[in-house]
Amino acid sequence: MAFIEIIFYVFSSILVLTSLGVILFKNPVYSAISLILSFITSAALWLLLQAEFLAIVLILVYVGAVMVLFLFVVMMLNISDVIRTSRFNKIAPFALFIGLIIVGELITLIWIRSDQFSMTSSPISVLDTSVGNTTLLGTALFTDYLYSFEIAGFILLLAIVVSISLTLRRREGLKRQIVSEQVNIDPTKRMKLVDLKSEKN
Amino acid sequence: MLALQSYLTLAAIVFAIGVMGIIINRKNIIILLMCTELLLLAVNFNFIAFSYFNQDITGQIFVFFILTVAAAEAAIGLAILVVLYRNKDSIDVQELQTLRE
User: Fold this and answer.
1) How far is CA A36 from the centre of its chain?
2) Nearest-5° angle of CA A7, CA A138, CA B36?
3) What is the SS3 assignment for B33?
4) Please, are residues B41 and A55 in contact by the beta-carbon 8 Å criterion?
5) Does residue A110 fall inside a structural domain?
6) How many independent structural domains does chain A possess?
7) Which of A17, A118, A143, A170 has the smallest number of CB atoms closer than 10 Å to its CB?
8) Are A111 and B78 within 8 A, CB to CB?
9) Residue B75: its pLDDT value, please?
10) Which SS3 state, helix, strand or coil, does residue A172 take?
11) Would you say B61 and A51 are in contact if contact means Cβ atoms under 8 Å apart?
12) Domain holding A53: CATH number?
Protein backbone atom coordinates (compact mmCIF):
# COMPACT_ATOMS: atom_id res chain seq x y z
CA MET A 1 0.00 0.00 0.00
CA ALA A 2 1.42 3.30 -1.01
CA PHE A 3 2.23 5.94 1.55
CA ILE A 4 -0.38 8.32 0.16
CA GLU A 5 -3.10 5.72 0.57
CA ILE A 6 -2.13 5.10 4.18
CA ILE A 7 -2.37 8.84 4.78
CA PHE A 8 -5.78 8.96 3.07
CA TYR A 9 -7.25 6.12 5.12
CA VAL A 10 -5.84 7.35 8.44
CA PHE A 11 -7.05 10.90 7.83
CA SER A 12 -10.46 9.83 6.60
CA SER A 13 -10.93 7.65 9.70
CA ILE A 14 -10.06 10.69 11.84
CA LEU A 15 -12.50 12.81 9.82
CA VAL A 16 -15.38 10.35 10.25
CA LEU A 17 -14.69 9.89 13.97
CA THR A 18 -14.52 13.62 14.65
CA SER A 19 -17.69 14.21 12.61
CA LEU A 20 -19.43 11.63 14.78
CA GLY A 21 -18.01 13.45 17.79
CA VAL A 22 -19.61 16.70 16.63
CA ILE A 23 -23.08 15.20 16.75
CA LEU A 24 -22.62 12.90 19.77
CA PHE A 25 -20.84 14.96 22.43
CA LYS A 26 -23.15 16.31 25.10
CA ASN A 27 -21.09 19.43 25.71
CA PRO A 28 -21.10 21.83 22.75
CA VAL A 29 -17.56 22.96 23.58
CA TYR A 30 -16.35 19.41 22.88
CA SER A 31 -18.42 19.42 19.70
CA ALA A 32 -16.80 22.65 18.53
CA ILE A 33 -13.29 21.38 19.25
CA SER A 34 -14.13 18.14 17.45
CA LEU A 35 -15.31 20.17 14.46
CA ILE A 36 -12.02 22.09 14.51
CA LEU A 37 -10.12 18.79 14.26
CA SER A 38 -12.33 17.65 11.40
CA PHE A 39 -11.66 20.90 9.52
CA ILE A 40 -7.91 20.49 9.95
CA THR A 41 -8.09 16.87 8.80
CA SER A 42 -10.11 17.94 5.76
CA ALA A 43 -7.48 20.56 4.97
CA ALA A 44 -4.85 17.81 4.99
CA LEU A 45 -6.99 15.72 2.66
CA TRP A 46 -7.46 18.71 0.35
CA LEU A 47 -3.69 19.01 0.20
CA LEU A 48 -3.65 15.44 -1.18
CA LEU A 49 -5.98 16.70 -3.92
CA GLN A 50 -3.58 19.57 -4.64
CA ALA A 51 -5.97 22.31 -3.56
CA GLU A 52 -3.30 24.02 -1.50
CA PHE A 53 -4.81 27.50 -1.40
CA LEU A 54 -8.22 26.27 -0.31
CA ALA A 55 -6.67 24.02 2.35
CA ILE A 56 -4.90 27.00 3.90
CA VAL A 57 -8.05 29.13 3.58
CA LEU A 58 -10.04 26.40 5.31
CA ILE A 59 -7.66 26.46 8.28
CA LEU A 60 -7.32 30.26 8.44
CA VAL A 61 -10.95 31.20 7.89
CA TYR A 62 -12.74 28.27 9.46
CA VAL A 63 -10.52 27.27 12.36
CA GLY A 64 -9.21 30.77 12.90
CA ALA A 65 -12.40 32.78 12.56
CA VAL A 66 -15.63 30.82 12.32
CA MET A 67 -14.90 28.21 14.98
CA VAL A 68 -13.50 30.82 17.35
CA LEU A 69 -16.78 32.70 16.86
CA PHE A 70 -18.67 29.50 17.67
CA LEU A 71 -16.63 28.98 20.83
CA PHE A 72 -17.20 32.61 21.84
CA VAL A 73 -20.95 32.22 21.52
CA VAL A 74 -20.96 28.90 23.39
CA MET A 75 -19.04 30.45 26.24
CA MET A 76 -21.31 33.52 26.33
CA LEU A 77 -24.32 31.32 27.02
CA ASN A 78 -25.14 29.80 30.37
CA ILE A 79 -23.42 26.43 30.31
CA SER A 80 -26.27 24.54 31.99
CA ASP A 81 -28.61 25.70 29.22
CA VAL A 82 -26.52 24.31 26.43
CA ILE A 83 -25.40 20.92 27.77
CA ARG A 84 -27.65 18.17 26.59
CA THR A 85 -29.03 15.98 29.33
CA SER A 86 -29.55 12.89 27.22
CA ARG A 87 -27.56 11.95 24.19
CA PHE A 88 -30.39 10.38 22.21
CA ASN A 89 -34.03 11.15 21.90
CA LYS A 90 -36.92 9.12 20.57
CA ILE A 91 -36.18 9.72 16.94
CA ALA A 92 -32.51 8.73 17.14
CA PRO A 93 -33.08 5.20 15.72
CA PHE A 94 -35.04 6.74 12.88
CA ALA A 95 -32.21 9.20 12.26
CA LEU A 96 -29.71 6.34 12.17
CA PHE A 97 -31.96 4.51 9.71
CA ILE A 98 -32.19 7.58 7.44
CA GLY A 99 -28.44 8.15 7.64
CA LEU A 100 -27.63 4.55 6.74
CA ILE A 101 -30.01 4.73 3.77
CA ILE A 102 -28.36 7.96 2.58
CA VAL A 103 -24.89 6.41 2.83
CA GLY A 104 -26.02 3.21 1.13
CA GLU A 105 -27.69 5.01 -1.74
CA LEU A 106 -24.81 7.38 -2.35
CA ILE A 107 -22.14 4.66 -2.19
CA THR A 108 -24.14 2.42 -4.49
CA LEU A 109 -24.51 5.25 -6.99
CA ILE A 110 -20.85 6.18 -6.76
CA TRP A 111 -19.48 2.68 -7.24
CA ILE A 112 -22.06 1.35 -9.72
CA ARG A 113 -21.37 4.12 -12.22
CA SER A 114 -17.64 4.14 -11.65
CA ASP A 115 -16.93 2.93 -15.19
CA GLN A 116 -18.41 6.16 -16.49
CA PHE A 117 -15.91 8.30 -14.59
CA SER A 118 -13.44 8.31 -17.42
CA MET A 119 -11.03 10.53 -15.57
CA THR A 120 -10.62 8.16 -12.65
CA SER A 121 -8.81 5.48 -14.59
CA SER A 122 -5.43 7.12 -14.27
CA PRO A 123 -4.58 9.49 -11.46
CA ILE A 124 -3.46 12.70 -13.01
CA SER A 125 -0.31 14.22 -11.67
CA VAL A 126 -1.01 17.93 -11.43
CA LEU A 127 -3.27 20.59 -12.86
CA ASP A 128 -0.35 22.58 -14.17
CA THR A 129 3.15 22.30 -12.81
CA SER A 130 4.43 25.53 -14.31
CA VAL A 131 2.22 27.79 -12.18
CA GLY A 132 1.11 27.31 -8.63
CA ASN A 133 -2.37 26.55 -7.40
CA THR A 134 -2.84 30.05 -6.03
CA THR A 135 -1.85 31.65 -9.34
CA LEU A 136 -4.25 29.40 -11.22
CA LEU A 137 -7.10 30.11 -8.85
CA GLY A 138 -6.46 33.84 -8.80
CA THR A 139 -6.25 34.07 -12.59
CA ALA A 140 -9.58 32.34 -13.01
CA LEU A 141 -11.16 34.26 -10.14
CA PHE A 142 -10.22 37.72 -11.36
CA THR A 143 -10.99 37.15 -15.03
CA ASP A 144 -13.84 34.74 -15.68
CA TYR A 145 -15.47 34.98 -12.29
CA LEU A 146 -14.92 38.65 -11.47
CA TYR A 147 -18.63 39.49 -11.07
CA SER A 148 -19.17 36.46 -8.85
CA PHE A 149 -16.18 37.55 -6.80
CA GLU A 150 -17.67 41.01 -6.29
CA ILE A 151 -21.03 39.50 -5.37
CA ALA A 152 -19.23 37.34 -2.80
CA GLY A 153 -17.66 40.48 -1.34
CA PHE A 154 -21.08 42.09 -1.19
CA ILE A 155 -22.47 39.03 0.60
CA LEU A 156 -19.75 39.41 3.23
CA LEU A 157 -20.62 43.11 3.64
CA LEU A 158 -24.26 42.11 4.01
CA ALA A 159 -23.30 39.60 6.70
CA ILE A 160 -21.45 42.30 8.63
CA VAL A 161 -24.41 44.71 8.44
CA VAL A 162 -26.94 42.04 9.39
CA SER A 163 -24.96 40.70 12.37
CA ILE A 164 -24.33 44.16 13.77
CA SER A 165 -27.91 45.33 13.29
CA LEU A 166 -29.24 42.14 14.88
CA THR A 167 -27.07 42.25 17.97
CA LEU A 168 -26.99 46.01 18.50
CA ARG A 169 -28.75 46.74 21.76
CA ARG A 170 -30.23 50.17 22.47
CA ARG A 171 -30.23 50.56 26.22
CA GLU A 172 -32.25 53.20 28.03
CA GLY A 173 -30.53 56.14 29.63
CA LEU A 174 -27.52 56.04 27.41
CA LYS A 175 -26.05 59.40 26.39
CA ARG A 176 -25.65 59.27 22.64
CA GLN A 177 -24.61 61.74 20.02
CA ILE A 178 -27.54 62.66 17.73
CA VAL A 179 -25.95 64.17 14.69
CA SER A 180 -29.13 65.38 12.98
CA GLU A 181 -30.13 67.46 15.98
CA GLN A 182 -26.65 68.90 16.20
CA VAL A 183 -26.69 69.92 12.55
CA ASN A 184 -30.20 71.32 12.53
CA ILE A 185 -29.83 73.42 15.63
CA ASP A 186 -30.71 77.11 15.36
CA PRO A 187 -27.68 79.11 16.48
CA THR A 188 -29.88 81.80 17.98
CA LYS A 189 -31.21 79.29 20.51
CA ARG A 190 -27.76 78.35 21.67
CA MET A 191 -26.22 81.77 22.03
CA LYS A 192 -27.72 84.75 23.77
CA LEU A 193 -26.24 88.21 23.44
CA VAL A 194 -26.44 90.11 26.64
CA ASP A 195 -25.93 93.80 26.89
CA LEU A 196 -23.72 94.50 29.83
CA LYS A 197 -23.64 98.02 30.95
CA SER A 198 -20.16 99.20 31.44
CA GLU A 199 -19.32 100.79 34.72
CA LYS A 200 -19.08 104.50 34.69
CA ASN A 201 -16.42 106.11 36.75
CA MET B 1 -3.89 4.29 -6.21
CA LEU B 2 -6.66 6.40 -4.87
CA ALA B 3 -9.61 6.87 -7.17
CA LEU B 4 -12.31 9.49 -7.27
CA GLN B 5 -14.73 7.02 -5.68
CA SER B 6 -12.76 6.94 -2.42
CA TYR B 7 -13.12 10.68 -1.96
CA LEU B 8 -16.79 10.66 -2.99
CA THR B 9 -17.50 7.86 -0.50
CA LEU B 10 -15.81 9.79 2.30
CA ALA B 11 -17.84 12.89 1.42
CA ALA B 12 -21.05 10.83 1.38
CA ILE B 13 -20.31 9.46 4.86
CA VAL B 14 -19.61 12.93 6.26
CA PHE B 15 -22.76 14.27 4.62
CA ALA B 16 -24.89 11.50 6.14
CA ILE B 17 -23.38 12.18 9.58
CA GLY B 18 -24.38 15.83 9.20
CA VAL B 19 -27.94 14.90 8.25
CA MET B 20 -28.19 12.51 11.22
CA GLY B 21 -26.89 15.24 13.52
CA ILE B 22 -29.60 17.64 12.36
CA ILE B 23 -32.29 15.01 12.93
CA ILE B 24 -31.26 13.76 16.37
CA ASN B 25 -30.44 17.16 17.76
CA ARG B 26 -33.44 18.76 19.39
CA LYS B 27 -31.80 20.53 22.31
CA ASN B 28 -29.26 22.90 20.92
CA ILE B 29 -29.21 25.25 17.95
CA ILE B 30 -25.42 25.58 18.09
CA ILE B 31 -25.02 21.91 17.20
CA LEU B 32 -27.46 22.42 14.32
CA LEU B 33 -25.23 25.20 12.94
CA MET B 34 -22.18 22.96 13.31
CA CYS B 35 -23.97 20.17 11.42
CA THR B 36 -24.67 22.65 8.62
CA GLU B 37 -20.93 23.32 8.49
CA LEU B 38 -20.32 19.56 8.21
CA LEU B 39 -22.76 19.30 5.29
CA LEU B 40 -21.05 22.17 3.47
CA LEU B 41 -17.66 20.55 4.14
CA ALA B 42 -18.85 17.33 2.49
CA VAL B 43 -20.08 19.27 -0.53
CA ASN B 44 -16.75 21.09 -0.78
CA PHE B 45 -15.00 17.72 -0.68
CA ASN B 46 -16.94 16.61 -3.74
CA PHE B 47 -16.12 19.81 -5.61
CA ILE B 48 -12.41 19.55 -4.89
CA ALA B 49 -12.24 15.84 -5.75
CA PHE B 50 -13.96 16.44 -9.09
CA SER B 51 -11.75 19.46 -9.71
CA TYR B 52 -8.64 17.34 -9.22
CA PHE B 53 -9.76 14.35 -11.26
CA ASN B 54 -11.29 16.47 -14.04
CA GLN B 55 -8.30 18.82 -14.21
CA ASP B 56 -10.58 21.83 -14.00
CA ILE B 57 -10.00 24.78 -11.68
CA THR B 58 -13.70 25.75 -11.73
CA GLY B 59 -14.51 23.35 -8.91
CA GLN B 60 -12.05 25.11 -6.63
CA ILE B 61 -13.55 28.50 -7.59
CA PHE B 62 -16.93 27.19 -6.53
CA VAL B 63 -15.51 25.96 -3.22
CA PHE B 64 -14.14 29.47 -2.67
CA PHE B 65 -17.64 30.94 -3.04
CA ILE B 66 -19.18 28.24 -0.84
CA LEU B 67 -16.64 29.08 1.88
CA THR B 68 -17.61 32.76 1.60
CA VAL B 69 -21.32 32.08 1.86
CA ALA B 70 -20.81 29.60 4.70
CA ALA B 71 -18.81 32.14 6.71
CA ALA B 72 -21.58 34.71 6.21
CA GLU B 73 -24.17 32.12 7.18
CA ALA B 74 -22.31 31.19 10.36
CA ALA B 75 -22.00 34.86 11.38
CA ILE B 76 -25.67 35.64 10.78
CA GLY B 77 -26.81 32.36 12.38
CA LEU B 78 -24.81 33.05 15.51
CA ALA B 79 -26.14 36.62 15.66
CA ILE B 80 -29.71 35.29 15.46
CA LEU B 81 -28.83 32.77 18.18
CA VAL B 82 -27.51 35.48 20.50
CA VAL B 83 -30.68 37.56 20.01
CA LEU B 84 -32.80 34.46 20.62
CA TYR B 85 -30.98 33.62 23.83
CA ARG B 86 -31.31 37.21 25.02
CA ASN B 87 -35.07 37.12 24.46
CA LYS B 88 -35.99 33.60 25.56
CA ASP B 89 -33.12 32.56 27.88
CA SER B 90 -32.92 29.27 26.06
CA ILE B 91 -31.60 27.83 22.81
CA ASP B 92 -33.69 24.66 22.99
CA VAL B 93 -35.16 23.90 19.60
CA GLN B 94 -38.25 22.36 21.15
CA GLU B 95 -39.10 25.53 23.03
CA LEU B 96 -39.28 27.58 19.86
CA GLN B 97 -43.00 27.11 19.34
CA THR B 98 -44.16 30.69 19.15
CA LEU B 99 -45.50 30.24 15.64
CA ARG B 100 -47.43 27.15 16.65
CA GLU B 101 -49.40 28.82 19.41
Assistant:
1) 11
2) 55
3) helix
4) no
5) no
6) 2
7) A170
8) no
9) 92
10) coil
11) no
12) 1.20.120.1200
Give the C-alpha separation, B42 to A50, whole Å: 17
Which residue segment(s) compose the domain that A156 sits in?
126-168
Asked if the interface predicted TM-score (ipTM) of this complex is over 0.85, the answer is yes
pTM across the whole model: 0.84
Judging contacts by C-beta atoms under 8 Å, the chain B residues touching residue A145 are 61
Compare CB distances from B14 to A16, A50, A166 and report the shortest one's residue: A16
- Contact B8/A110, CB-based, under 8 Å? yes
Distance from CA of A150 to the nearest CA of B (A): 11
- Mean pLDDT of each 10-residue bin along chain B, 101 residues long: 84 94 84 93 94 86 93 92 85 76 70
Number of Cα atoms under 13 Å in the Cβ half of residue B83: 15
End-to-end CA separation in angstroms for chain A: 113
Contact in structure between A53 and B51 (CB atoms under 8 Å) = no
